[in-house]
Amino acid sequence: MGYEKRKRGKAFNAATIELQEDQRKSDKEIASIAYELIEPLCDAEGIELVHIEYQREAGGRILRIYIDKPGGVTLNDCTAISRQAGDILDVGFENDEPYNLEVSSPGLDRPLVKLKDFERFKEKRVKIRTDKPLSGQKNFKGTLLGVSNEDVSVSIDNKIMNIPFKEIIKARLVS
Questions:
Q1: CB 127 within 8 A of CB 171
Q2: What domains appear along the chain, each with residue ranges and CATH number?
Q3: Which residues face 54 on adjacent strands?
Q4: CB atoms within 10 A of CB 72
Q5: What is the pLDDT along the chain (175 residues), one digit of tens a residue?
Q6: Residues in Cβ contact with 41 at an 8 Å cutoff, skipping those fewer than 6 apart
Q7: Which residue intervals of 47-114 are DSSP H helices?
Q8: What is the pTM of this model?
């Protein structure tokens, strides 16, 4: 598993604009903007951009980029993407808060973000959280059965639960 971490943000970003408090973008919006900026880089390098998270942690803000490729990613892959992504973000990422940029493989608890991820990892154990309760609960853990009509099917205690993809706010493989 590869991993690269670098400090980024206001002091490093010539394209930064100062945003008023009421104009600040949500963490999800910032991650989405970063995804749009970084996806072409990953495509050009033959690397899958799995997911991007932007969140506050104990050490400050983190922009975490998960990448993968057949055979797995190496430290060199993470370093190369980190350096290039850092340059792209310095120019195109309007964020006035300093943040740490991390690039790593998705690991064993890989996030499942795209509908095709749920098909790709059929028969694997998953943990899913939904926005709204389904059958009285928001958290599900079971075996992934695949996708049908935009619903993700999961076997939980020998019962099949169909979860609408649009209701999933977080999903990961579990061991």
A1: yes
A2: 3-104 (3.30.300.70), 115-173 (2.30.30.100)
A3: 63
A4: 11
A5: 555 555 554 433 333 333 334 346 788 899 999 999 999 999 999 999 999 999 999 888 999 999 999 999 999 999 999 999 999 998 887 776 888 999 999 998 999 999 999 999 999 999 999 999 999 999 999 999 999 989 999 999 999 999 999 999 999 999 8
A6: 81, 84, 85, 88
A7: 75-92
A8: 0.78
